[in-house]
Amino acid sequence: MGMCLPCLGGAADDVVVTPDPETRRQQLAEAAEKRQKETAYRGVKNPEAVERKRKKQEEIEKQAMTPSVSGGGGLKWQVG
């Protein structure tokens, strides 16, 4: 019985204080975002350039979807 007491005496110094639930939730959310970014850009040397190219491609696709008023750009019906 006397041999366990020295072990328990130093246990109070090793206690890790857990943060409140809101702080813990925030830390988990930040870690999840970091993991998603790492997996999204795995093997990419310049992620900013990839993001710029993706946005430019989306703009080009959006412009292609909107009809051009000045060019007439569609099929024309001929009746006759």
TrEMBL record:
Source domain of life: Eukaryota
Keywords assigned: Lipoprotein, Myristate, Palmitate
Record GO biological process: negative regulation of ERAD pathway; negative regulation of retrograde protein transport, ER to cytosol; negative regulation of VCP-NPL4-UFD1 AAA ATPase complex assembly; positive regulation of autophagy
Region (Disordered) residue spans: 25-80
Biased composition, class Gly residues, residue ranges: 70-80
InterPro entries in alphabetical order: SVIP (IPR031632), SVIP_metazoa (IPR055366)
Pfam families (alphabetical): SVIP
Any Gene Ontology CC annotation: endoplasmic reticulum membrane
Keyword Lipoprotein listed: yes
Protein's name according to its UniProt entry: Small VCP interacting protein
Organism of provenance: Xiphophorus maculatus (Southern platyfish)
